[in-house]
Design goal:
It is a single chain. The protein has no helices and ten strands. By secondary structure, the protein is mainly beta. The chain has one domain (2-66, 94-102). It is elongated.
Length: 104
Amino acid sequence: MYAIIKANGKQYKVEPGQKIELDRINAEPGEVVSFDEVILYSNDGESVLGTPLLDGYSVKAEVLEHFRAPKIIVFKMKRRKRNRVKRGHRQEKTRLQINEIVPA
């Protein structure tokens, strides 16, 4: 059994018991969050596809932790002008444990 959900403008394939990482959401660790924007639900080879979303389907997940992703370096340079900019960026992330997929 799996579902494809839409969260923070991105799509994620989730299964019960799976841990996923997505951009930071406003929820405390230990809190249970619900994702109602389910695009596809599949169980034992049977798939239900929404147009664009499925009504009545939801995915329940528990927030495990908030963390920051590894640093990436952004380097910009203008050739022949001695103009160089080096910046680092660490994205705020949230780790979730998928508890259940609730069909309609």
